Amino acid sequence: MRQLANNFFQTGTSLIIEGTTGLTVIDPGWDAVGSTRTDTSVHETYALARHKDKPITRVILSHNHQDHCANLQVYLRQTPDLELIVGPHSPFKKFADQVIDINPGKVKQVIDGIEETIFVTPGHSKQGDDISIYFPQPKILFCGDLAQPQGESYAKTDFVTPLPFYYDGDLYLASLSLLKSVDFDILVTGHGQVLGNQRGYEWLDTTQKTIKRTQELATQLVRDHPTKSDLELGRWILETIGYERNTPKSTIRARSNSKDFEDYDFQGIKFWLDYAKRT
Protein backbone atom coordinates (compact mmCIF):
# COMPACT_ATOMS: atom_id res chain seq x y z
CA MET A 1 0.00 0.00 0.00
CA ARG A 2 1.40 3.36 -1.06
CA GLN A 3 0.14 6.73 0.13
CA LEU A 4 -0.01 9.31 -2.68
CA ALA A 5 -1.49 12.21 -0.71
CA ASN A 6 -3.72 12.82 2.30
CA ASN A 7 -6.55 10.29 2.07
CA PHE A 8 -5.29 8.84 -1.24
CA PHE A 9 -3.64 5.40 -1.44
CA GLN A 10 -2.62 2.95 -4.13
CA THR A 11 -2.39 -0.82 -4.07
CA GLY A 12 -1.83 -2.88 -7.19
CA THR A 13 -3.65 -1.00 -9.93
CA SER A 14 -6.35 0.36 -7.59
CA LEU A 15 -6.68 3.89 -6.26
CA ILE A 16 -8.21 4.05 -2.76
CA ILE A 17 -9.78 7.24 -1.41
CA GLU A 18 -10.55 7.69 2.27
CA GLY A 19 -13.73 9.66 2.84
CA THR A 20 -15.25 10.89 6.06
CA THR A 21 -17.02 7.62 6.80
CA GLY A 22 -15.79 5.08 4.22
CA LEU A 23 -13.37 4.07 1.46
CA THR A 24 -13.82 4.29 -2.32
CA VAL A 25 -12.00 1.85 -4.62
CA ILE A 26 -11.30 2.91 -8.21
CA ASP A 27 -10.63 -0.07 -10.51
CA PRO A 28 -10.58 -3.17 -8.28
CA GLY A 29 -8.08 -4.93 -10.57
CA TRP A 30 -7.82 -8.67 -11.15
CA ASP A 31 -5.10 -10.14 -8.89
CA ALA A 32 -7.38 -11.78 -6.28
CA VAL A 33 -9.58 -13.83 -8.62
CA GLY A 34 -8.93 -17.52 -7.99
CA SER A 35 -5.94 -16.64 -5.83
CA THR A 36 -5.03 -18.08 -2.42
CA ARG A 37 -2.46 -15.35 -1.80
CA THR A 38 -2.89 -13.09 1.20
CA ASP A 39 -1.06 -10.09 -0.27
CA THR A 40 -3.42 -9.14 -3.09
CA SER A 41 -4.72 -5.60 -3.59
CA VAL A 42 -8.06 -6.71 -2.11
CA HIS A 43 -6.37 -7.97 1.07
CA GLU A 44 -4.42 -4.71 1.36
CA THR A 45 -7.55 -2.61 0.86
CA TYR A 46 -9.46 -4.45 3.58
CA ALA A 47 -6.41 -4.14 5.84
CA LEU A 48 -6.51 -0.37 5.27
CA ALA A 49 -10.24 -0.37 6.04
CA ARG A 50 -9.58 -2.14 9.36
CA HIS A 51 -6.72 0.24 10.18
CA LYS A 52 -8.90 3.27 9.46
CA ASP A 53 -11.94 1.63 11.07
CA LYS A 54 -14.00 2.58 8.03
CA PRO A 55 -15.94 0.29 5.65
CA ILE A 56 -15.42 0.03 1.90
CA THR A 57 -18.51 1.75 0.54
CA ARG A 58 -18.00 2.49 -3.19
CA VAL A 59 -16.36 1.01 -6.27
CA ILE A 60 -15.80 3.04 -9.45
CA LEU A 61 -14.94 1.23 -12.70
CA SER A 62 -12.97 3.23 -15.27
CA HIS A 63 -14.08 0.68 -17.89
CA ASN A 64 -15.14 -2.94 -18.20
CA HIS A 65 -11.90 -4.75 -19.17
CA GLN A 66 -11.21 -7.72 -16.91
CA ASP A 67 -7.82 -6.54 -15.68
CA HIS A 68 -9.61 -3.53 -14.20
CA CYS A 69 -12.82 -5.03 -12.84
CA ALA A 70 -12.44 -8.79 -12.22
CA ASN A 71 -11.85 -8.30 -8.47
CA LEU A 72 -15.28 -6.66 -8.18
CA GLN A 73 -16.77 -10.11 -7.51
CA VAL A 74 -14.31 -10.60 -4.65
CA TYR A 75 -15.29 -7.28 -3.06
CA LEU A 76 -19.01 -8.02 -3.47
CA ARG A 77 -18.68 -11.38 -1.73
CA GLN A 78 -17.28 -9.60 1.33
CA THR A 79 -19.31 -6.36 1.05
CA PRO A 80 -22.57 -7.07 -0.86
CA ASP A 81 -23.99 -3.55 -0.39
CA LEU A 82 -21.18 -1.73 -2.20
CA GLU A 83 -22.23 1.27 -4.28
CA LEU A 84 -21.13 0.84 -7.92
CA ILE A 85 -20.37 3.73 -10.31
CA VAL A 86 -19.78 3.10 -14.04
CA GLY A 87 -19.65 4.93 -17.36
CA PRO A 88 -22.22 4.96 -20.19
CA HIS A 89 -22.81 1.68 -22.05
CA SER A 90 -21.05 -0.32 -19.32
CA PRO A 91 -21.97 -4.02 -19.19
CA PHE A 92 -22.38 -3.43 -15.44
CA LYS A 93 -24.88 -0.61 -16.02
CA LYS A 94 -27.93 -2.56 -14.84
CA PHE A 95 -26.22 -3.30 -11.51
CA ALA A 96 -24.86 0.22 -10.99
CA ASP A 97 -26.03 2.76 -8.43
CA GLN A 98 -24.75 5.67 -10.56
CA VAL A 99 -24.14 5.83 -14.32
CA ILE A 100 -22.15 8.78 -15.65
CA ASP A 101 -24.04 9.61 -18.82
CA ILE A 102 -22.59 10.83 -22.10
CA ASN A 103 -24.79 13.91 -21.75
CA PRO A 104 -23.59 16.22 -20.18
CA GLY A 105 -20.35 14.20 -20.16
CA LYS A 106 -19.19 14.98 -16.64
CA VAL A 107 -20.48 15.02 -13.09
CA LYS A 108 -19.17 17.22 -10.28
CA GLN A 109 -20.08 15.95 -6.85
CA VAL A 110 -19.01 15.75 -3.22
CA ILE A 111 -19.28 12.21 -1.87
CA ASP A 112 -18.43 11.44 1.75
CA GLY A 113 -16.50 14.69 2.06
CA ILE A 114 -14.41 14.16 -1.10
CA GLU A 115 -14.85 16.51 -4.07
CA GLU A 116 -14.63 14.76 -7.43
CA THR A 117 -15.34 15.30 -11.11
CA ILE A 118 -16.06 12.25 -13.24
CA PHE A 119 -15.51 12.72 -16.98
CA VAL A 120 -16.87 10.53 -19.76
CA THR A 121 -13.71 9.75 -21.79
CA PRO A 122 -14.55 7.11 -24.42
CA GLY A 123 -12.39 5.69 -27.18
CA HIS A 124 -10.34 2.92 -25.59
CA SER A 125 -12.95 0.27 -24.80
CA LYS A 126 -15.21 -1.27 -27.41
CA GLN A 127 -18.34 -0.47 -25.38
CA GLY A 128 -17.42 3.22 -24.99
CA ASP A 129 -17.79 3.09 -21.20
CA ASP A 130 -14.46 4.73 -20.25
CA ILE A 131 -14.53 7.34 -17.49
CA SER A 132 -11.77 9.34 -15.78
CA ILE A 133 -11.95 10.72 -12.25
CA TYR A 134 -10.41 14.00 -11.07
CA PHE A 135 -9.95 15.07 -7.46
CA PRO A 136 -9.21 18.82 -7.30
CA GLN A 137 -7.77 18.39 -3.82
CA PRO A 138 -4.97 17.28 -4.22
CA LYS A 139 -5.16 17.53 -8.05
CA ILE A 140 -5.06 13.79 -8.76
CA LEU A 141 -6.41 12.53 -12.09
CA PHE A 142 -7.15 8.82 -12.57
CA CYS A 143 -7.27 8.20 -16.33
CA GLY A 144 -7.90 4.46 -16.65
CA ASP A 145 -6.29 3.24 -19.88
CA LEU A 146 -6.28 6.58 -21.70
CA ALA A 147 -2.51 7.14 -21.32
CA GLN A 148 -0.82 4.56 -23.57
CA PRO A 149 2.37 6.17 -24.90
CA GLN A 150 4.23 2.82 -25.11
CA GLY A 151 7.41 4.79 -24.32
CA GLU A 152 8.59 8.01 -22.74
CA SER A 153 8.37 9.95 -26.01
CA TYR A 154 7.32 9.52 -29.63
CA ALA A 155 10.99 9.01 -30.51
CA LYS A 156 11.44 5.93 -28.32
CA THR A 157 9.24 2.99 -27.32
CA ASP A 158 9.94 0.41 -24.63
CA PHE A 159 6.88 -1.80 -25.05
CA VAL A 160 5.92 -4.81 -27.18
CA THR A 161 4.18 -2.46 -29.64
CA PRO A 162 4.48 1.23 -30.54
CA LEU A 163 0.69 1.50 -30.88
CA PRO A 164 -1.99 2.13 -28.25
CA PHE A 165 -5.03 -0.13 -27.98
CA TYR A 166 -8.37 1.48 -28.78
CA TYR A 167 -11.57 1.08 -30.80
CA ASP A 168 -12.75 4.61 -31.64
CA GLY A 169 -9.99 6.97 -32.70
CA ASP A 170 -12.17 10.08 -33.00
CA LEU A 171 -13.55 9.73 -29.47
CA TYR A 172 -10.14 8.79 -28.09
CA LEU A 173 -8.51 11.94 -29.51
CA ALA A 174 -11.27 14.09 -28.02
CA SER A 175 -10.92 12.36 -24.65
CA LEU A 176 -7.16 12.94 -24.62
CA SER A 177 -7.67 16.63 -25.42
CA LEU A 178 -10.10 16.85 -22.51
CA LEU A 179 -7.68 15.22 -20.07
CA LYS A 180 -4.85 17.49 -21.23
CA SER A 181 -7.01 20.46 -20.24
CA VAL A 182 -7.34 19.22 -16.65
CA ASP A 183 -5.15 20.94 -14.04
CA PHE A 184 -3.60 17.87 -12.41
CA ASP A 185 -0.40 17.47 -10.39
CA ILE A 186 -0.52 13.66 -10.34
CA LEU A 187 -1.70 11.35 -13.12
CA VAL A 188 -2.56 7.81 -12.05
CA THR A 189 -3.08 5.23 -14.80
CA GLY A 190 -5.22 2.12 -14.69
CA HIS A 191 -2.08 -0.02 -14.75
CA GLY A 192 -0.55 1.48 -11.63
CA GLN A 193 1.79 4.15 -12.98
CA VAL A 194 1.94 7.33 -10.89
CA LEU A 195 3.23 10.30 -12.89
CA GLY A 196 4.03 13.89 -12.02
CA ASN A 197 2.57 16.84 -13.88
CA GLN A 198 5.05 17.14 -16.76
CA ARG A 199 5.47 13.42 -17.36
CA GLY A 200 1.72 12.88 -17.19
CA TYR A 201 1.04 15.49 -19.86
CA GLU A 202 3.83 13.99 -22.00
CA TRP A 203 2.27 10.53 -21.76
CA LEU A 204 -1.12 11.88 -22.85
CA ASP A 205 0.47 13.94 -25.64
CA THR A 206 2.54 11.02 -26.98
CA THR A 207 -0.53 8.79 -27.02
CA GLN A 208 -2.43 11.45 -28.95
CA LYS A 209 0.45 12.01 -31.37
CA THR A 210 0.66 8.28 -32.15
CA ILE A 211 -3.07 8.07 -32.84
CA LYS A 212 -2.95 11.10 -35.15
CA ARG A 213 -0.01 9.59 -37.02
CA THR A 214 -1.98 6.36 -37.46
CA GLN A 215 -4.83 8.39 -38.95
CA GLU A 216 -2.46 10.16 -41.37
CA LEU A 217 -0.93 6.90 -42.58
CA ALA A 218 -4.31 5.19 -42.93
CA THR A 219 -5.62 8.05 -45.08
CA GLN A 220 -2.53 7.94 -47.30
CA LEU A 221 -2.48 4.16 -47.72
CA VAL A 222 -6.20 3.84 -48.50
CA ARG A 223 -5.76 6.47 -51.21
CA ASP A 224 -2.55 5.03 -52.69
CA HIS A 225 -3.26 1.29 -52.33
CA PRO A 226 -7.01 0.73 -52.70
CA THR A 227 -6.67 -2.97 -53.60
CA LYS A 228 -4.57 -3.99 -50.60
CA SER A 229 -6.26 -5.76 -47.68
CA ASP A 230 -6.80 -3.98 -44.38
CA LEU A 231 -4.38 -6.33 -42.63
CA GLU A 232 -1.65 -5.59 -45.18
CA LEU A 233 -2.17 -1.86 -44.72
CA GLY A 234 -2.30 -2.35 -40.96
CA ARG A 235 1.08 -4.09 -40.90
CA TRP A 236 2.58 -1.29 -43.01
CA ILE A 237 1.31 1.21 -40.46
CA LEU A 238 2.75 -0.83 -37.58
CA GLU A 239 6.13 -1.06 -39.34
CA THR A 240 6.17 2.66 -40.25
CA ILE A 241 5.32 3.88 -36.78
CA GLY A 242 7.69 1.31 -35.30
CA TYR A 243 10.48 2.71 -37.47
CA GLU A 244 9.59 6.31 -36.56
CA ARG A 245 9.49 5.47 -32.86
CA ASN A 246 12.75 3.49 -32.92
CA THR A 247 11.09 0.25 -31.92
CA PRO A 248 13.50 -2.70 -32.43
CA LYS A 249 12.89 -4.50 -35.73
CA SER A 250 12.70 -7.82 -33.93
CA THR A 251 9.90 -6.47 -31.75
CA ILE A 252 7.93 -5.26 -34.77
CA ARG A 253 8.41 -8.57 -36.62
CA ALA A 254 7.18 -10.54 -33.61
CA ARG A 255 4.21 -8.23 -33.10
CA SER A 256 3.21 -8.16 -36.78
CA ASN A 257 2.94 -11.96 -36.90
CA SER A 258 1.15 -12.35 -33.57
CA LYS A 259 -2.52 -12.72 -32.70
CA ASP A 260 -2.07 -9.76 -30.34
CA PHE A 261 -1.54 -7.50 -33.34
CA GLU A 262 -4.97 -8.40 -34.72
CA ASP A 263 -6.68 -8.38 -31.32
CA TYR A 264 -5.22 -5.11 -30.04
CA ASP A 265 -3.15 -2.88 -32.37
CA PHE A 266 -5.29 -3.53 -35.43
CA GLN A 267 -8.52 -2.37 -33.77
CA GLY A 268 -7.45 1.28 -33.80
CA ILE A 269 -5.85 0.97 -37.24
CA LYS A 270 -9.07 -0.54 -38.62
CA PHE A 271 -11.05 2.41 -37.25
CA TRP A 272 -8.91 4.84 -39.27
CA LEU A 273 -8.88 2.67 -42.41
CA ASP A 274 -12.68 2.55 -42.35
CA TYR A 275 -12.80 6.27 -41.62
CA ALA A 276 -10.58 6.99 -44.64
CA LYS A 277 -12.77 4.88 -46.91
CA ARG A 278 -15.87 6.79 -45.83
CA THR A 279 -14.31 10.26 -46.32
Please describe what this structure looks like:
This protein is 38% helix and 20% strand. The chain is α/β, with parallel strands linked by helices. The strands form two sheets. It has a seven-stranded mixed sheet, with helices on one face. The chain has a six-stranded mixed sheet with strand order 8-9-10-11-12-13. β4, α1 and β5 form a beta-alpha-beta unit. α5 crosses α8 and α6 packs antiparallel against α7. The chain is elongated. It starts with a strand and ends with a helix. The relative contact order is 0.11.
Task: Briefly summarize what is shown.
The protein has helices spanning 41-52, 66-69, 72-78, 169-180, 197-224, 230-244, 249-256, 259-278, and strands spanning 2-5, 8-11, 14-18, 23-26, 56-60, 83-86, 98-99, 106-111, 114-120, 131-135, 140-142, 186-188, 194-196.
Query: Unreliable runs, pLDDT <50, ≥5 residues?
Result: none
Number of strand segments: 13
Structural class: alpha/beta
Name the shape in a single word. elongated
Distance between the termini: 50 Å
Order of helices and strands: EEEEHEHHEEEEEEHEEHHHH
Rounded radius of gyration (Å): 20 Å
Strand content: 15-25%
Helical segment count:
8
Strand sequence of the main sheet, in spatial order? 1-2-3-4-5-6-7
The overall average pLDDT, rounded, is 97
Helix content: 25-40%
- How can the largest sheet be summarized? 7 strands, mixed
Characterize the quaternary organization of these chains: single chain
